[in-house]
Amino acid sequence: MKLKMFILFSVLSLLFAGCAREKHDISFNVGGAPAEISVWQEVVREFTDTTGIRVKINIQPTDSDLRRQGLVLPLAAKRAEPDVFLMDIAWIGQFAASGWLAPVEISDKARAAFFRGVIETADTYDNRLIGLPVYIDGGLLYYRKDIVKKPPDSWEELVRICVENGRQGENPCFVWQGAQYEGLVCNFLEFALANGGGIIIEGNRADINTAENREALRFMAGLIHKHKVSPPDTYTSMREEESRIAFEESGALFQRNWPYAWGIYSQEGSPVKGKTGIAPLPGFKGKKGASTLGGWHIGISAFSKNKEAALRLVEHITSYDVQKRFAIKMGWNPGREDVYDDKDVLEASPHFKQLKEVFVNASARPNVPYYTRLSSVLQKHLNAALMMKTGAEEALEAAEKEINAIIREYEK
Ligand code: GLC
User: Fold this and answer.
1) What would the CATH number be for the domain defined by 2-137+294-360?
2) pLDDT digit string (tens) for 201-217?
3) pTM of the model
């Protein structure tokens, strides 16, 4: 027995010694596609080499909702870790209102490098800066420029091109994000806006079950069930990475995704390298297309015990050089405005200039502190309509009712 206890203690002390060796000064939660994680690791390694500040990276998934859950638990419990994290633009409002974000204290000169409109609307709370944009997202249309000579002007034309090319049923033509998660709300907003609708919250009331929105949602379901140009797994599994891979591997002609896919398609070995074009998302016939504003911002936990070191990491990640590298290696639209004029950046991503309008005019999701609750209601009903479990009208009516109940509860 004694011997067993001795062995157990020896093993435990070895384990503790191991942990002590891995001591860190701050921890950083970051997620993304596998190719992106390796760039993050490289950037953090350099930071430690130059500053001596040791950073523990906690790798999170790509899915925005899962990343949020991974942060809400420690923050709601006021835990000291993680010190620094990336936040989806969709949840900054709620994080700030919950008191989870420390001010990001940088000089006015440093602040001037970032898009003013973005930091004023998304990163300012109670007149204080509580985050900085690492990259700005907007929905884009990727197309196979070796097959489709000109991107479609309307959603109807996109369907026509698919049918003409015999890409229906077993041969998916258009991939987008229809799984039950945040990305579905972004896709829906784009179809709805492109049809003159949207997610409107005014005077404490949500207006969602409108004729324009119903038509847009019917069209989305029709892509799968009527025209059969989008695969049935659109509503079961299509998130960003699934669509990005399907476009690379299935021969699909079109894809709706964020700018990051460009970075991956530009890498050696990608089967669609040199064959991919990017265009703004189309509108419905005679109407203008629209793009949802997305993007990830960096923040410091209000409960961090090492805010000084945390701020230095934030400064490093948002520095000109690192932002330039992100733009070139990952195709991300930088949060800093000054990087857009960089010659090397424009060479790697010429669409930054051509599609500037898309990003300047991208439409934000409702900036309300209960946004995540609103979104999960929408996700559930939109997904049921894509599955044809319910009709578009029934889905939007139910969503509107539940969202209005949330608003009333919130207003109490
Ligand atoms: C991207 C966007 C983010 C959005 C998410 C949805 O990561 O940057 O804003 O919420 O996609 O899946």
Assistant:
1) 3.40.190.10
2) 998 899 999 999 999 99
3) 0.91
